[in-house]
């Protein structure tokens, strides 16, 4: 009986040990699986400046009118191709024809009067030689003849003006191009009293376009003439277009206390896919990095709930060179010194499943990754980018095999944009 009890006691003790071991294993597994991680990679990165802009033709001509009138003939419409000198529109010419006829009649009358006054002045000169009229009468005759001649010249100038205005009723294309805008219609009255109204907008060559991109003040120093630009438009989401920076305009644009500068990007459009007014999402290529250590951006935005600046200053990140807490003024990786501000703290998943802080410095960045320039990180390290929700499986980026796949892996691991980087 005692032997049976002893066996049951050993069996119960063994069950308790197994249960404790299982509980501890599950606890450790849960502890290690509470974070979402991404892998530090070694690969290539292109540093760039992102900006949005509007696509427009390189040269655009606004065609207007210098005279008022009613549109009598409309010969072109949107998207029509025109040649230089082609008649685009005709205004009702009757008012200007009547003014010209009246001016011509006035000129004929003044010429007759001027001829009579010239003859009177010639007779007065002969009479003055014979002393039949006074000097005053002679000078009066000459002045009258000169005034009549001046009136004739004034009437001739008025005729030139009236003929010019009559010619302005016919609107011709100043250059060859494409009509991209028409702002009048048949029968519409055009008033040109104080300013020249725009009737048509012509684009000279739609195979040569340009992007007018707004560059933030903080990024304008990175944009140079001749720089390569890649961009896409919403109409062709999967297609990448190429361009070159042609000009960075010095005129600043301030909106709501935000200063931007306009960069002009020259773009070839041989197939006509790019249309005027499209919005371009441009990436200005600043510098290429090859074989560098890449940190997922999401790692810089995650901190433990109890992690504060005071705790970080008190404990300090682990010093990879020994000596306890790191001394920012002395820690170096090669020639790069780690010091505040400008450095960031990221957390690596430790062997015991805990979040271990690492102090690093980052350099160039794109939408997904940043270049690690100093600090104790190496390729293959698992950095924490977030916490798992209850019931969510552990998410971790796989091993790096191709640098081209790094963006897809970062998205799967939850990488995002770093704050303040």
Automatic annotation (TrEMBL):
Domain Multidrug resistance protein MdtA-like barrel-sandwich hybrid: 59-199
Keywords of the record: Transport
Keyword Hydrolase assigned: no
InterPro entries noted in UniProt: Beta-barrel_RND_2 (IPR058792), MdtA-like_BSH (IPR058625), MdtA-like_C (IPR058627), MdtA-like_HH (IPR058624), RND_pump_MFP (IPR006143)
Intracellular or extracellular location(s): Cell envelope
Domain Multidrug resistance protein MdtA-like alpha-helical hairpin: 101-169
Region ranges (Disordered): 312-337, 388-421
Ranges annotated as biased composition (Basic and acidic residues): 328-337
Membership in a protein family: Belongs to the membrane fusion protein (MFP) (TC 8.A.1) family.
CC per GO annotation: efflux pump complex
UniProt-recorded name of the protein: Efflux RND transporter periplasmic adaptor subunit
Gly residues composition-biased segments: 412-421
GO molecular function, one term: efflux transmembrane transporter activity
Organism lineage string: Bacteria, Pseudomonadati, Pseudomonadota, Alphaproteobacteria, Sphingomonadales
Residue ranges annotated for the Multidrug resistance protein MdtA-like C-terminal permuted SH3 domain, each copy included: 342-389
The CusB-like beta-barrel domain, residue ranges: 211-285
């Amino acid at each position: 009986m005692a032997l049976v009890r002893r066996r049951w006691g050993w069996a119960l003790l063994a069950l308790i040990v197994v249960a404790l071991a299982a509980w501890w294993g599950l606890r450790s597994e849960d502890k290690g699986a509470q974070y979402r991680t991404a892998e530090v990679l070694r690969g290539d990165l292109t540093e760039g400046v992102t900006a949005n802009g509007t696509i427009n033709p390189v040269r655009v001509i606004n065609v207007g009118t210098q005279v008022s009138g009613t549109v009598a003939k409309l010969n072109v419409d949107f998207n029509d191709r025109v040649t230089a000198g082609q008649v685009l529109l005709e205004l009702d010419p009757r008012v200007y024809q009547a003014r010209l006829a009246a001016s011509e009649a006035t000129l004929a009358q003044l010429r007759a009067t001027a001829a009579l006054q010239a003859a009177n002045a010639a007779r007065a000169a002969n009479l003055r030689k014979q002393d039949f009229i006074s000097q005053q009468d002679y000078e009066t005759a000459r002045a009258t003849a000169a005034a009549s001649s001046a009136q004739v010249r004034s009437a001739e100038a008025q005729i030139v003006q009236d003929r010019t205005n009559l010619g302005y009723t016919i609107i011709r294309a100043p250059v060859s191009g494409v009509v991209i805008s028409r702002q009048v219609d048949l029968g519409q009255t055009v008033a040109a009293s104080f300013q020249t109204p725009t009737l048509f907008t012509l684009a000279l060559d739609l195979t040569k376009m340009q992007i007018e991109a707004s560059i933030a003040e903080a990024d304008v120093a990175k944009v140079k003439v001749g720089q390569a630009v890649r961009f896409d438009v919403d109409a062709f989401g999967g297609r990448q277009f190429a361009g070159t920076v042609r000009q960075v305009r010095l005129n600043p644009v301030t909106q709501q206390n935000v200063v931007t500068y306009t960069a002009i990007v020259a773009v070839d459009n041989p197939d006509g896919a790019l249309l005027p007014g499209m919005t371009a999402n441009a990436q200005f290529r600043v510098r290429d990095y090859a074989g560098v250590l890449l940190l997922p951006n999401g790692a810089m935005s995650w901190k433990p709930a109890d992690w504060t600046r005071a705790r970080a200053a008190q404990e300090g990140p682990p010093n990879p060179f020994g000596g306890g807490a790191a001394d920012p003024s002395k820690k170096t990786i090669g020639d790069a010194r780690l010091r505040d501000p400008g450095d960031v703290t990221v957390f690596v998943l430790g062997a015991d499943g805990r979040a271990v802080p690492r102090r690093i410095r980052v350099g160039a960045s794109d939408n997904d990754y940043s270049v690690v320039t100093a600090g104790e990180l190496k390729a293959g390290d698992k950095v924490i980018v977030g916490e798992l929700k209850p019931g969510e499986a552990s998410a971790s980026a796989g091993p790096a095999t191709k640098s081209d796949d790094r963006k897809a892996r970062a998205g799967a691991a939850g990488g995002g944009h770093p704050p303040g980087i």
